[in-house]
Every structure is written in C-alpha cells, then in structure tokens.
Design brief:
With 152 residues, this protein is mostly helical. It folds into 2 domains: 56 residues; 74 residues, no CATH class. Helix content is 64%, strand content 0%. Helix 3 packs antiparallel against helix 4 and helix 4 runs antiparallel to helix 5. The longest helix has 22 residues. The protein is flat, with a radius of gyration of 21 Å. It comes from Rhodophyticola porphyridii. This is Tripartite tricarboxylate transporter TctB family protein. Keywords: Membrane, Transmembrane, Transmembrane helix.
Length: 152
C-alpha cells in the first residue's frame, strides 16, 4: 500500500474521528435522556461514525499514486497562523469577542496578502458583529462582546 496524500489525509481524519468519538462519550446525560432516541451524544456519535467510514474508505480504496510533496508549502505562514490562533485563544476573554475576533480576522487576512485597511475592516467587523448578534439574540448564547474595562 503506497502512502499518498489521500491516504495520509484519511489516516489523519480517522485519528481525529476516533478521538472525537471517544471524547463524545464524556458528554453527560440527564437520567431521563439515557433511554431517549435523540440526546446530546447523538449527533457527535453519528458524525464520528460517518467520519470513520469516510476515512476508512479513503485509506482502503485505491487513489492517486502521487507522493506527498511537503517542499512547496509555506511553512512560515502556517506557523504564523498557529501563533495567531493561539494568541486569539488567549485574548478572546480579556479583549472581548468583537475586538479579539475582528483583530484575528484582520491579521489573518493580512497574512493571506490583503494590505488595504478598508477591505480588512469591512471584511472583518461586520461579519463578527453579525455573528455575535446571531449568537446572542437568535440563539440566546451569551458571548461577552467588549473588553473588561469597557463593560461597566
């Protein structure tokens, strides 16, 4: 069996789905939910089963025979995105959702090559505000929008 890009992706997907399935069993159920047909674990279980099936299909069935080429990837940009995502995780609580997420998107777009400030702001801020409104008003999920010093 030759290792191709597809098979490596399938192995990574299989690993992710197996971990996801295992962690989904940690979701606590209320006593009346244990015998219900649909509960908090149902969708994670279905998604993990579908993902495992697709991953196995990708691994087992013959695909392209090309070898993975890692030399052409922009590893610096990938590393910068990992740093950016980590920084976002650390700043979302102190800076608030709207400011932190807007900065995250603007810096991400800049890393991808956009250099003009107006498109960066127009592609980030309205999207973040619309998502915040959808989550807080439509789905009734509280997300702190502003930094701590602006809250009171």
């Amino acid at each position: 069996m030759m290792l191709s890009k597809d098979r490596i992706g399938g192995v990574l997907l299989l690993l992710f789905c197996l971990i996801y399935a295992w962690l989904s069993q940690d979701i606590r159920l209320l006593p009346f939910q244990e015998r219900a047909a649909f509960h908090a674990r149902t969708m994670p279980e279905i998604l993990s089963i579908l993902g495992i099936g697709l991953a196995l299909w990708t691994i087992i069935l013959p695909g392209k025979s090309e070898r993975p080429e890692l030399g052409g990837a922009d590893w610096l940009k990938a590393g910068l995105f990992l740093v950016l995502m980590s920084a976002y995780g650390f700043t979302v609580r102190p800076l608030g959702f709207i400011l932190s997420t807007s900065l995250f998107l603007m810096i991400g777009y800049a890393l991808l090559g956009e250099r003009k400030l107006v498109p960066l702001v127009l592609a980030s801020v309205p999207l973040v505000v619309a998502f915040w409104v959808l989550m807080t008003q439509g789905l009734d999920v509280f997300i702190e929008p502003w930094p701590g010093f602006l809250r009171e």
